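Section 5.1 Outputs to date
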Amino acid sequence: MGTRAVVVDDDSLVGELSKTLLEDAGYEVDLINDSAKGLQSILARPPALVLLDILMPGLDGLTLCHRIKSNAATKAVKVVMVSGKAFHADRKRAADYGADLFIEKPYNVDTFAMQIADLLAGQAPPSLAPAVAPRLGPQPQAPAEAKMHATVWGCRSLSPYEGGEPSRYGRHTPCVSLEVAGSLLIFDAGSGIVPLGQRLVEEGKYRNLWLLLTHFHQDHIEGLEKFAPAYAEGFKINIGAPASPDEALEGRIQNLFEAAPPEFGAMQAQLEIFEMREETYALLPGVQLSPFFANHPDTTLAFVVEAEGRKFVYAPDSEIYGEQGTAMQDYDERLCRLAQGADVLIHDARYLDSDYQTRKNNGHSSWADTVDLAARCGIRRLVLFHHDDSYSDALLDRTEADARKRIAEKGYALELMMAREGLKIGF
């Protein structure tokens, strides 16, 4: 019997391919498409080798790697990350967590088994290369009476821009609120959360708040320490965010609040912190929240909210592969499946096509790729978001005009909006 390997990958195409290639090379292979079950199998009967995808429901691959390498019974298992999410930050984290090899999807089928054999033999692996594109889905019907109301409080990136010029689109970093089923959900805590917080304290309408953080990059958390409801009596703030395997989520968030300027005083609000995974949560009565891992450096979530027959998707930091994607880079397909038919998709469209060509693999998309994917996925209304801070109003105006022209020329059934501070969307 050959060396035992376990492949944990929720993408059946790549998982089956990896399994077949390893079996052809003489390995005994178990393919498991559920990450929690994969961990159970590995702990129960440690194999010689484990292959892990990064973006998986439940436990992501980096967390799995960390748990395998932190356990005395499995730390000697060779761990190979096989993922299309291959940003420098993710490669570094994989290495920090003990991964023995990182193979980027799409990989070369002719050299794949050889790379694994070299790893097990203690030799250094060569690099691997690309292959073919995914097909994505149909068009929806628009619902009528508004049941959800979204407001944009900040939509810019954090960049070296220091011009200080006013902008019709605003200069605040990401924050979006969503009124649904008599409650308020807040997405991200960029600087836009500061004016939102002031409004919430002044009006006193919503006291039980849900704040959902996509990740911990500066432009998505920089306003949290100045979020006024945290320092006012009578508020409860529920914070949902992705966890890092090597850092306690509660401590990470408490540290952000502790950086508040002295004039804010002590925290008065009740605070509850929840680790979010790629699962489905009954967040509130009649409101379903489904986080999913986004294609962006570090552990990053996007969110789907479904309630009262409406669907809202927030994916502010998300790199689409577009026409250059391959069958093994399944992110576009996963995103499309999860966002399918949404009434509103707020999605990363940070770059012009020309800029994107020199800034690929940084976790952000071009507006053209975002428009094309939204149309293929049957999105009713697309909001282009996360504008590069160096872009002038004139350039953003031109981007909107070019996007509308593309929609008309290609015959897309898609309503387009450019994010700007104060934008309100009822659906």
